[in-house]
Write a structure and sequence with these properties.
This is Dienelactone hydrolase domain-containing protein. This protein is an alpha/beta fold. It has 5 helices and 7 strands.
């Protein structure tokens, strides 16, 4: 299964830190691309990842839900998939591998936490869980920096 990724950057900013943006069960959508665009306003470049690839994501919610369920049943396969994707993205010439963080929404949040637990060299991760109240516009985030072990709740990322 191929993965897909879109680099979103401000070409006038040289050597911006990179934020990997992982999707929920729907596959990469306009929401992740819009979030990636917002990150450029804060001094980052972003890579909106589609873990499922165009073939699965193009099949709609039924296909992406099945793919996600498969990864949830086989976390080792998910771990291998994440490592493959991360290694490919970190090797991209536009990416400074020493300045990469990852964020994820719902299923993507689980993915970025798995990357952190796996010891991958990320500066930090932030997961945005599915809201428990669908009418609420508040989405509590849990953010972690490499090595501090202290959860950061709702703190925005800042370029350094």
């Amino acid at each position: 299964m191929q993965f897909d990724a879109v680099l979103v950057r401000d070409d006038t900013v040289a050597a911006a830190p990179t934020v990997l943006v992982f999707h929920g069960m729907e596959g990469r959508s306009d929401a992740q691309l819009q979030f990636a665009s917002r990150l450029t306003e804060w001094g980052y470049q972003a890579i909106a990842v589609d873990l499922f690839g165009e073939e699965v994501s193009g099949g709609g919610l039924g296909s992406t839900t099945a793919a996600m369920a498969g990864y949830l049943e086989d976390r080792a396969a998910l771990g291998q998939r994440l490592t493959t994707v991360l290694d490919a993205l970190m090797a991209a010439p536009e990416v400074d591998a020493g300045r990469v963080a990852a964020i994820g929404f719902c299923f993507g949040g689980l993915c970025v936490l798995d990357l952190a637990r796996g010891g991958h060299p990320l500066a930090g991760v932030c997961e945005f869980p599915r809201p428990t109240d669908p009418t609420s516009r508040q989405h509590p985030a849990q953010c972690h920096r490499q090595g501090d072990g202290v959860p950061r709740v709702g703190r925005p990322l800042r370029a350094s």
